[in-house]
Design a protein that fits this description.
single chain; mainly beta
């Protein structure tokens, strides 16, 4: 399994930005797909964005144009840049890795509120 450690969450005002980081315990080019999910209060976990080992990205329609997923191979890190944040983006954000087995990070809280 892959150990994942997220960071970068916090409280931000509507319209603000945050960047989440997810550090993996092994080279991310050995992981078929990495991504970000979120779970809003009282709702189910949903996919936000993912990036394949080949670099192909997918972004959920609800955040397209505002969120970007990227990676730094040398740092074994995947990022989620979140711009123009809205209150409905409030959720616990989880990093996910699929390397045959699926692994999850511990989650990081993002709260968008004035």
């Amino acid at each position: 399994q892959v150990q994942l450690v997220e960071s970068g969450g916090g409280l931000v005002q509507p319209g603000g930005s945050l960047r989440l980081s997810c550090v993996a315990s092994r080279p991310i080019l050995s992981i078929w797909r990495m991504g970000w999910y979120r779970q809003p209060p009282g709702k189910e976990r949903e996919s936000v964005a993912n990036i394949s080992v080949g670099g192909t990205t997918n972004i959920a329609e609800s955040v397209k144009g505002r969120f970007t997923i990227s990676r730094d191979v040398a740092k074994n890190t995947v990022y989620l840049q979140m711009n123009a944040l809205k209150p409905e983006d409030t959720a616990v954000y989880y990093c996910n890795a699929n390397a045959g087995q699926v692994s999850w990070g511990q989650g990081t809280q993002v709260t968008v509120s004035s």
